[in-house]
Each structure stands twice: as structure tokens, then as C-alpha cells.
Design a protein that fits this description.
It is a single chain. This protein folds into three domains: 112 residues, no CATH class; 91 residues, SH3 type barrels; 85 residues, Alpha-Beta Plaits (2-Layer Sandwich), CATH 3.30.70.100. With 354 residues, the chain is α+β, with helices and mostly antiparallel strands. The chain is built from eleven helices and eight strands. It is 57% helix and 14% strand. A five-stranded antiparallel beta sheet has the order 4-3-2-1-5. The protein is elongated. A hairpin with a 4-residue loop joins strand 3 and strand 4.
Length: 354
Amino acid sequence: MLRLGPGSIAIWQWIALVVALVAGYIVGRIVAAVLGRLGRAMTRRTDTSLDDQLLDRLQGPLRALMTIAAFRSLLPLVQLHAEAGGVTRALLLAALGGVLVWGALRAVDIFVTRLTAASWAIARPTSRALVSLLGRIAKVLVVVIAGIGFLGALGLPIASLLAGLGIGGIALAFGAQKTVENLFGAVALGVDQPLREGDFVLIEGDVLGTVESVGLRSTRVRTLDRTVVTLPNGKLADMKIETFAPRDRCRLAATIGLVYSTTAVQLRDVLVGVERVLRAHPSIWPDDVVVRFVKFGDSSLDIEIMAWFQTRDWSQFRTWRQDVLIAIMDVVETAGSSFAFPTRTLHVTGSHAA
């Protein structure tokens, strides 16, 4: 048992290392179970379920951490020589770093799951995709930082490595400038929510249609002609976007012109009759109904009509608008007037020679 084995370590020491590892594993599981019970007793007193999920998902990393701690506490009993002890402690430090990375990755998963299950994320499918993307980016950052720390622990020149990564990152940024721009545009659209899938939108006064999909690179809009317009997210985030989905009412705006032969009495009858038609409609917003004689036009007496229907359904609005406009025609006919059309009168004068 005293003979030297691999690494100039005695046979009994190798056996002691194995026993210490097994004992550390057992002790680690026991301690982790006790800490888990204590933690659950504390998390039951809180209203949020986030701490419960964290406790459940971090049980594996916690057991590994307790195993490392127990093994490290038993290591002096093995009486390793300086070189073997240094290597063992370095391996334990690397294992500790791996456990911390493992726990950080699981924590990222928990937060991503919580965010994607939130009510605002369920109502915004684009936001769920962005949250998943940000979760993957966070995982990559955790692994990269851990990798740089591991290489630094091995004695490699971290400054040179970071400088190289910086130069490579700049080259990558120039090469993928548009891709990065569109990616950040997608994040901006997901956070600000100027449009969502299924919304009817007008973009820059040019593109009118329904949003079919909001991707990580581009957004697709189905126009009224049934064509699809694809807009890069980087540019779309800077455009003027008018969304019709959030509106709570649809506006009726019209100007009608009566012939100049209309008398003042007839004009008053038309004004009263049109306002009566509007206010009698069950879906008209009663707080603001405008029916006013506004001006003497070039060929007509102009009346401004403005009202709001309490509906978000554009098809329903068009049907109600048609009914109201026909009723306004009846009012004009009943008053004895008629609608004007553009006319021009030419007066010709002449002189006769003496």
C-alpha cells in the first residue's frame, strides 16, 4: 500500500482519493437535500413561484457544489505531496467553474421560461421569439466569459486573446452590419410594439396591409392587392407606422354641397335632419357629432359632417356608413334641396356699333 503508483502517489493515497470522492458525493447529496428542504420552507412563504423554480432547477448544480466542497474538506487527510495537491486543487477549481456555468445556464433557462409564459409575451408572439433569442445570447456570453476565465487560469495571455477577439469582432461587425442592424431592429420592434402579427397597418404612407409575420430579419405585410411586401427590420424600426388595430372608433368624415338655390330654411332643415340621423344611430359616439354649415363654396353651400362609430370592425363600419349616407340623401330630398355639382356660369357682354 505504500508503494508509489501513477503520479508518484502511493497506492493507499489513490484508494483514499476514491473513498474521499465517494464520501464527498454522499455528503454532498445529504447536505444539498437538507438545504433544499430549508429553501422550500422559505420559498413557500413568498407569493412568487420564481424562487421555487430556481430551487428545483438548481438542485443538480447544488449537489455538485456540495460534493466538491466535501471532497475539498477531506483532501488534507490524503496527504498528497505538493505537486499532486496543486494539480488536484486546480482540477477542483475547474470543476467548480463548470458547476457555476451549469447553474448560470439553468438560471437563464428559468428566466426565459418565465418571460415567455408571461401574459404580455403570450399576447405578443414576436416578443416570445425575441426573449428566446436573448436567452441564447446570454448563454453564449456565459460560456465565453467562463472560457476566458479558464484560459486565464491556465496561464494563457488573456490580454492578447481579448485583443484578438476585439479585432475579430470588429471585422465581423463590418461584415454582418446589415444582419446586426436587422436583429436590433427586431428587438426594437418587439419592445416598442408599433405593430403585431395580424395588425392592419400603413407604413410610411405607402405600404397598406396586414402584418403576416415579424421575423428576426424582416417583417412581411400582405397588401390589399394580395401581394407580400418584405421590409428589413432595421429600416422598419425607423419608419412611420400607423396601426389601425388599437383604435376604438371609426370616423365618418364627409363634406356635402347643396345647390345655391337652397333657402336658409331648407339649409336649417338639412342641418337638423342630418344631426338627427346621426344621433339616432345606436352605434354613433354621442359625445361629438359635428354637422355645420362651413362655407360658401365655388358652386355649393358646403356642410361638414363628422362623427365616430363605436366599432373596430372596418367591414361593419362601411355598412353603417352606407346606411347613414343614404339617410342623409333622404334628409336633403325631404328638405326640398339637392346636391350641387361643380358648375361655372359664363357672362357674355357685347357692344353694338352706332
